[in-house]
Amino acid sequence: GNSVTQMEGPVTLSEEAFLTINCTYTATGYPSLFWYVQYPGEGLQLLLKATKADDKGSNKGFEATYRKETTSFHLEKGSVQVSDSAVYFCALSDRNFNKFYFGSGTKLNVKP
Amino acid sequence: KAGVTQTPRYLIKTRGQQVTLSCSPISGHRSVSWYQQTPGQGLQFLFEYFSETQRNKGNFPGRFSGRQFSNSRSEMNVSTLELGDSALYLCASSLELAGAYEQYFGPGTRLTVT
């Protein structure tokens, strides 16, 4: 079956540090992969996506590359800001099916 | 375009009562999915509606039900509320692009059962 595993949090970084949040997946077929971000008291916002192997999704300085050989979709950012503090969710969806599978979320705390 | 809207944003109910939550999707989106989010269980899929029909269903008891109207607006209902139903209920509307889906979430309804 399909599943997503992401690193346990919380992750605590100083402002301007490099961020990596690991995400691996198990899927049949060729899923699409996503990162969502949730700020306190809000719903999930789509951060970036990739729909096929070797695609790189990017948005607001965040990047993730769809690696089929390692079944991974790690989120990276070169220099985090305090405003990036939030919970990040990795997710996959089956192609041709609107069914999403979410990881457990990784809380990021960025200190000034 | 306006985003996904959910009403109400906050609800407090008593055990045994029932509750109805509403979701209006992004204009043009025909699919609406519902999720329950709790600190212990994370995001759990409840069901998805497309063109007024339930297309996918998660693993929740029959107390949880939903429907979708012809304008794509959706409601979910929880009957005989239990303390464990306290959660953030999220609605997501979907766009399909060449066989791949994207989900866009509303701000959620925070339900507290006392």
Describe the protein:
The complex is a heterodimer of chains A (112) and B (114). Chain A has 112 residues and is mainly beta. Chain A is 0% helix and 51% strand. In chain A, strands 2, 5, 6, 10, 11 and 12 form a six-stranded mixed beta sheet that branches. A four-stranded antiparallel beta sheet of chain A has the order 3-9-8-7, with no helix packed on it. Chain A has a two-stranded antiparallel sheet with strand order 1-4. Chain B is mostly beta strands and 114 residues long. The model of chain B has no long low-confidence stretch (mean pLDDT 94). Chain B has strands at residues 5-7, 10-13, 19-24, 31-38, 42-50, 53-57, 64-68, 74-78, 87-97, 100-105, 109-113. Chain B is 0% helix and 59% strand. In chain B, strand 9 and strand 10 form a beta hairpin. At the A-B interface, strand 5 and strand 6 of A face strand 5, strand 9 and strand 10 of B.
Keywords:
heterodimer, A: mainly beta, 6-stranded mixed beta sheet, 4-stranded antiparallel beta sheet, globular, B: 114 residues, mainly beta, 7-stranded mixed beta sheet
Topology:
The complex is a heterodimer of chains A (112) and B (114).
Chain A lengths: L2 E4 L4 E4 L4 E3 L1 E4 L5 E7 L5 E7 L5 E4 L2 E4 L9 E3 L8 E8 L6 E3 L3 E6 L1
Parallel strand pairs in A: 2-12
Antiparallel strand pairs in A: 1-4, 3-9, 5-6, 5-10, 7-8, 8-9, 10-11, 10-12
Chain B lengths: L4 E3 L2 E4 L5 E6 L6 E8 L3 E9 L2 E5 L6 E5 L5 E5 L8 E11 L2 E6 L3 E5 L1
The two chains with the largest interface, and their residue counts, are: A-B, 23 and 25 residues
- Specify the structural class of chain B: mainly beta
From the spread of the alpha carbons, the general shape of chain B counts as globular
Number of helices of chain B: 0
User: How are helices and strands ordered from N to C of chain B?
Assistant: EEEEEEEEEEE
The gyration radius over C-alpha positions of chain A equals: 13 Å
What is the subunit arrangement here?
heterodimer
- What Rg of chain B do the Cα atoms give? 14 Å
Based on secondary structure, the structural category of chain A is mainly beta
How many strands appear in the DSSP assignment of chain A?
12
